[in-house]
Amino acid sequence: MPSLNTRWDIFCTVVDNYGDIGVTWRLARQLVAEHSLAVRLWVDDLRAFERICPEIDINAAQQWQQGVEVRHWPSEWLPIDAADVVIAAFACQLPSAYMDVMAEREKPPLWLNLDYLSAEDWVTGCHGLPSVKYKSVQKIFFFPGFRPGTGGLLRERGLLEQRRKFQRDAQAQRQFLQGLGIERAPDAQLISLFAYENAGLASWLDVLAAGATPTHLLVPEGRILGDVARWLGVESLAVGAIDVRQALTVQVLPFIRQDQYDHLLWCCDFNAVRGEDSFVRAQWAGRPMLWHIYQQDEDIHLDKLDAFLALYTKGLSPAAAHAMNGLWQAWSAGQPIGDQWLSARKHWPELQENAEAWCLEQGLQADLAAALVQFYLNWI
Prior knowledge:
The protein is an alpha/beta fold. It has 2 domains: 7-153 and 365-379; 159-363, 3-Layer(aba) Sandwich (Rossmann fold). It is 41% helix and 19% strand. It has helices spanning 19-35, 46-52, 96-104, 122-126, 159-167, 170-179, 201-210, 225-232, 258-267, 277-285, 301-312, 318-332, 338-345, 348-363, 368-379; strands at residues 7-12, 38-43, 62-65, 68-72, 85-89, 110-114, 130-134, 137-142, 189-193, 215-220, 242-245, 248-253, 270-274, 289-292. 40% of the residues are buried. The mean pLDDT is 94.
């Protein structure tokens, strides 16, 4: 393990509201808690950070949260020592003044570009390769991933054991849900919905409302709320709103902190998630899921979607894999998914088994924080 005096700097520019800060905040906390490292997390948008960590003082230039030194990334950079390990999250551009300080160190720091998560084949070949160089400092690509030879996924120590214990404890789940104001009917399927705006939502809600099985749909505050409101025929939806349409109960939840969101995913029978952070957390829930991938220019996000689906559905029968592919592809294209949902429901036990098996398979790999620490140890 590196020296307790080893300092790590993580830089985060908030691009997609909560995904970037969600990943870097989890990583920073884990490096402190499990690897005894001194971590500074530089964030340019503390208001977005406050949504997932309500204790954040949005006006503070420097503060400590859960052992992490949180620094507001200023528009005017002041002189400060560079860390031993510098992580530029999601290819963000470091301040030029900080890069100069890195280059002035007697021993240059390990400079890592922590890239976006992808299941594409080329990721394994590029992981750990040199990127650009600034004076004496070499930047290196570091890719999270689903295959051996990548940096793995964020996973705290003991997470899967905690999840399994919680999912076996009906009373613990009931108490957690009640704490959020959720009263689940014994025969209702519980679904969480966290997504970008999506024109395909209405067809799914139509099918859920007309279904023979009652559905309780939990919608945390977010961008999909406008589409939900339009389907309900109301002007807007506020936190706490509950609306019942035939077999479907829709309930709006507040934006909750990360550990609560984990428990929400663990409670649900099916989770619709978006971006990167909630995508990974839904996989650790071991339940069937639906991913709304972040759209990119020239539809390059569809390559990422196809690559993940090829891995995720590998253990399914051809019919079940076809159903899941159809559901995910239609959802990411903003197309109606009612029929695709009904097709997927025909394979429900198999989809449940596959979700748990995928979770356990990914859990065999080193987690992202441990992989970063080991990379540093190999580097020195």
